[in-house]
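User: I'm putting together a teaching handout on how multi-component assemblies are represented. Below are the sequence lines for each component of a complex, exactly as they appear in our records. Could you produce the 3D structure of the whole assembly as structure tokens, so the students can see both representations side by side? Please keep the chain order the same as the input.
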Amino acid sequence: QSVLTQPPSASGTPGQRVTISCSGSSSNIGSSYVYWYQQLPGTAPKLLIYRNNQRPSGVADRFSGSKSGTSASLAISGLRSEDEADYYCATWDDSLSGPVFGGGTKLTVL
Amino acid sequence: EVQLVQSGAEVKKPGESLKISCKGSGYSFTSYWIGWVRQMPGKGLEWMGIIYPGDSDTRYSPSFQGQVTISADKSISTAYLQWSSLKASDTAMYYCARGGITLKWPFDIWGQGTMVTVSS
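Assistant: Of course. Below is the structure of the complete assembly, with chains in the same order as your input.
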């Protein structure tokens, strides 16, 4: 049981916009920045969004993040086949004194 | 280029010991925290612990405290994760990841992962 709650799966067709939600509590999302990681099949996680809505250099502007209260979401617009991956939200948890991850959402591009 | 390179895959028997490594390059290794993350087969990411190579300050997730030992040798820019007695349930992919400077988080650069298989 992960501290942060994500839907286990999401899907969309090429060109569509999909969103992935992440729900937490006041001790984690409610008091810290949210980060999103993309894990392509067979590879290490890659930082996709930092500080709620910032994109590292090289990340397409099709990816965007937002946060409100104790929830956050990742939006992917103009869906492409190469976006098929697992997506994880993450943040710092004050109770744990460490980072916590969501359970991951497997995105399928139909 | 900033990178973390991990040691290769391991196959061990229950009860054996193991130490895997993570070598940093392209940045000041002693200035950034290094974390370890477990990913069991088909499962999500779990934070195990974190170390500051500059002074070896180490923190563990309660779930992993006493189960593993995290260390670092700053002279060779390498962090380690070790087990004294492996169990079949330790079978997983293990990632090291670079944390922050003043803050331990977030993890921005990840190693390629080390697959550990424990089987009799």
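A couple of points students might notice: The longest strand of chain B covers residues 18-25. Chain B has no helices and eleven strands.
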